[in-house]
From TrEMBL:
GO-annotated molecular function: RNA binding
Organism ancestry: Eukaryota, Metazoa, Chordata, Craniata, Vertebrata
Coiled-coil segments on the chain, per record: none
Protein name: 60S ribosome subunit biogenesis protein NIP7 homolog
Main location: nucleus
Superkingdom assignment: Eukaryota
SMART domains per the UniProt record, alphabetical: PUA (SM00359)
A family per Pfam: UPF0113
Subunit architecture: Monomer. Interacts with pre-ribosome complex. May bind to RNA. Interacts with NOL8. Interacts with FTSJ3. Interacts with DDX24.
Keywords per UniProt: Nucleus, Ribosome biogenesis, RNA-binding
Amino acid sequence: PLTEEETPVMYEKISKYIRENLQLLMDRLDGTYCFWLHNDLVYYLAANISGNKLVSLGTCFGKFTKTHKFWLHITALDFLVPYAKYKLFLYGNHVLKSGLGQIIENTSQYQGVVVYSMSDIPLGFGVAANSTQECRKVHPKATVVFHEADIGEQCVGHEETLTSNEVIAKTYGLALFPV
């Protein structure tokens, strides 16, 4: 499990995106979930799994850096989306004012936001560079979201985020065979 120092750091990062809905992420209708640390990577998994029945470890939510900061991985996106309080919709691929299609009212500056396409598909997450009111006034080439993670990283940076089966195989010295 996470240590007493790591838990608040990670919870602070996640609550930027889902605020008080963090408790809903932990106590879901289908069971209680927890975060588990393995080799500086944090995994989200069911809390009631015993070690002797462990087949898979869960979903990688992020990692701790050497300076003890927590970085969210894009694999956490599907779990953050249902609880996101602040959303931003894009017309295209750029996170500039000219590519902004819609922003939820009352989004404050430096607020964590989940980024969607105009067809309501979650694309990633970032930090709002401006509040909702400021976004209406800024230059079309101004940045409105600072990038944190997007779905393209699953293809490019996949060697850093191991699947849970790869983690288990490395831990116990097992070999994985392609199916």
